[in-house]
Design a protein that fits this description.
Helix content: 25-40%
Number of strands: 6
Order of helices and strands: EEEHEEHHE
Largest sheet: 3 strands, antiparallel
Strand order of the largest sheet: 1-2-3
Shape: globular
CATH superfamily of the largest domain: K homology (KH) domain
Structural class: alpha+beta
CATH class of the largest domain: Alpha Beta
Radius of gyration: 18 Å
CATH architecture of the largest domain: 2-Layer Sandwich
Distance between the termini: 47 Å
Number of domains: 2
């Protein structure tokens, strides 16, 4: 078996319904987790929703990649924290054939780097994270702000 090229990343996940309406059992590799549909859809809304899971993935990708970029550039990045706020307003959609986020706000806090270095790692994340890339091309109002501590 040949190894895939180093530029290729592949992901396999699964999801299936459960006996409780609106509750979904998900899996990735040998990890399992539950996602609930939102209460607005008459679903349980007790576990995280699909939108929250997606935004969590974007935030996690950001934290991880900013550390990788800082390491690769030999920057002294100590910590990263990302908070994301997303809104879906069905009356403010870019397209009429799909529903997307209407706006997304990223607040990034970085420790141990200069303002210029922070800009470098944040810009690197924006270019490299496929989740952020997918979100940013689909959402008309994406703002990323960062501060150093």
């Amino acid at each position: 078996m040949t190894n895939p090229p180093p530029t290729l990343r592949e992901y396999d996940v699964s999801a299936r319904s459960t006996d409780l309406f609106g509750r979904v059992l998900c899996g990735a590799r040998d990890h399992h987790f539950v996602i609930d549909g939102p209460i607005q859809n008459d679903c349980p809304g007790e576990e995280i929703t699909p939108a929250e899971a997606f935004l969590s993935g974007v935030a996690a990708c950001g934290v991880e990649l900013m550390h990788v970029i800082a390491r690769d550039q030999q920057l002294n990045l100590e910590r990263v924290a990302v908070k994301i706020h997303g809104e879906v307003d069905r009356s403010k959609q870019r397209r009429d054939d799909v529903t997307t986020f209407s706006s997304v706000r990223f607040d990034v806090t970085l420790w141990g780097v200069s303002q210029a270095e922070a800009g470098t790692v944040v810009d690197g994340f924006r270019r490299r994270c496929p989740l952020f890339g997918s979100l940013s091309v689909a959402t008309s109002d994406v703002k990323v702000e960062y501060k150093i501590v």
